[in-house]
Write a structure and sequence with these properties.
OB fold (Dihydrolipoamide Acetyltransferase, E2P); 4-stranded antiparallel beta sheet; disordered C terminus; globular; 42% strand; mainly beta; two-stranded antiparallel ribbon
């Protein structure tokens, strides 16, 4: 399964745009230089009072369809899968 490593920093105000319905997607730069667009909803479990901050690994199937995301910073190795 392909893996894409991204670093992300979103402020609390930027995350608030998600809750207000003004934002549905986040664009992040992968470690290999690619830009990756993803629904912010896959990051829901990583939202804190400060927003979202960390290094993440996005795991996809062979067609690059999202399977799950795992935080490289958190102790929680399960991540969020397709079922959310």
């Amino acid at each position: 399964m392909p893996k894409i490593n991204v670093s992300m920093i979103l402020t609390a105000e930027q995350v608030q745009d998600y809750y207000a319905g003004r934002v549905r997607y986040v664009v992040a730069w992968a470690d290999d230089g690619r830009s990756v667009q993803m629904p912010i909803s896959i990051l829901h479990k990583y939202i804190s009072n400060q927003g979202i901050r960390g290094n993440f690994t996005i795991i996809t199937d062979e067609n690059f369809k999202f399977q799950r995301i795992v935080s490289a910073n958190a102790d929680d190795e399960q991540g969020l899968d397709v079922m959310g």
